[in-house]
Amino acid sequence: MKDKLKASLKTWIVLVAVFALGCITGVGVGGVYRAKTNASLRDSHQRDREAMFEKIRHDLDLTDEQAKGIHRVLDETAGEFRTLRSEVRPRYEELRLKTRGRMRALLTTEQQQRFDALMAELDAKRQNNDSR
To answer: What's the DSSP call for residue 105?
Structure first.
C-alpha cells in the first residue's frame, strides 16, 4: 500500500514538474519570438505607412499640397501612437512582473535561479530591441 502511494506521488510530482517546465519554455520561446518580431515590425511599420501614403497619393491623385497634408497627418498620428504606447507600457510591465512572480512561486529554489537568469536574458534582449 505504501509503495503504491509513493509511486502515485512520484507520478504527480513528475507531471507537475513537466507542466511547470513547459510553461517556462513557452514563456521563453514567446519572448524570443516577440523580440525578433518587434524589431522587424518597427521597420515594417515605417514601410507600411509609406506604402499606405503612396497608395493614397496615387489612387486619389493628390496634389502636392494635399500629399504634404496627408504626410503630416500620418506623422502626427505616429507620434500619438508612440505616446499612447508609453502611457500603456507601465500597466503592461506591472502585469508582466506580476505574472512572473506567480510563475516563480511555483518553482523550486534551483528552478527559480534558472528562471531569474532566463528572464534577465529575455529582458536584456527586449531592452536592446526597444532601444533600436
So the answer is: T
The one-letter code for the residue type at 70 is I
CA pair distance 38, 44, nearest whole angstrom: 10
CA distances from 39 to 32, 35, 45, 125, 129 (A): 11, 7, 10, 11, 6
128: left (phi over 0), alpha (psi -120 to 50) or beta: alpha
CA distances from 46 to 17, 51, 79 (A): 44, 9, 12
* The predicted structure's pLDDT at residue 91: 93
Residue pLDDT, tens place only, 68-126? 998 899 888 888 888 898 999 999 899 999 999 999 999 999 999 999 999 999 988 88
Q: Quick: pLDDT tens for 54-66.
A: 898 899 998 999 9
Rounded Cα distance, 112 and 108, in Å = 6
As a whole number of angstroms, the distance between CA 104 and CA 90 comes to 21
| Average pLDDT, integer, range 20-49 | 69
